[in-house]
Amino acid sequence: MSEPTISISIKMLDSELPVPSYAHPSDAGADLHARTSLVLEPGQRALVPTGIALALPHGYVGLVHPRSGLATKHGITIVNAPGTVDAGYRGEIMVTLLNTDRDQAFEITRGDRIAQLVIQKVEQAAFVQVDSLEDSARGTGGFGSTGGFSAN
Q1: Annotated binding site for substrate
Q2: What is the pLDDT of residues 92-119, one digit of tens each?
Q3: Residues comprising the binding site?
Q4: How far apart are the C-alpha atoms of 13 and 125, rounded to whole Å?
Q5: Dist CA 48 CA 39 (whole Å)
Q6: Taking the CA of residue 25 as centre, how many other CA atoms within 13 Å lie in the half-sphere pointing to its CB?
Q7: Does residue 105 contact residue 99 with C-beta atoms inside 8 Å?
Q8: Which of 18, 39, 132, 137 holds its CA 20 to 30 A away from the CA of 74?
Q9: From CA 146, how far away is CA 33, in angstroms rounded?
Q10: Over the stretch 21-72, which tens digit does the pLDDT of each residue have?
Q11: Which CATH number belongs to the domain containing residue 15 in this structure?
């Protein structure tokens, strides 16, 4: 297993749940678990508690991503993916799950892995107001300007 590069203080709000961990040594995301059981009906979303609170150091962010297996097999995703956990936030990490399947409900059992947490360094920008921006190769081309999207 690779050595951790940063220590994160974690408060377990539910001692029966596992501490977030990485399934494989090179994984970017640590598994987050459901604190409660529930059923997500087709098209339904729910705010699911994870039973943990963190103290991220200044200059870091926690990004909550969907689990690819849940998305592929069951259509379960995160509404605001990735969710942002700011360094100053000390409350319980919550995940807004959405069932995108049109026909099948999805049952979440307490302790299930529901999302993954990626810790990243962040930069804060100084926004400088200007009258014009320098030109670039892309210019003002937006959605579909590189040929990868068609509205038709």
Answers
A1: 67-69, 80, 84-86
A2: 999 999 999 999 999 999 999 999 999 9
A3: 67-69, 80, 84-86
A4: 34
A5: 11
A6: 3
A7: yes
A8: 18
A9: 39
A10: 999 999 999 999 999 999 999 999 999 999 999 999 999 999 999 999 999 9
A11: 2.70.40.10
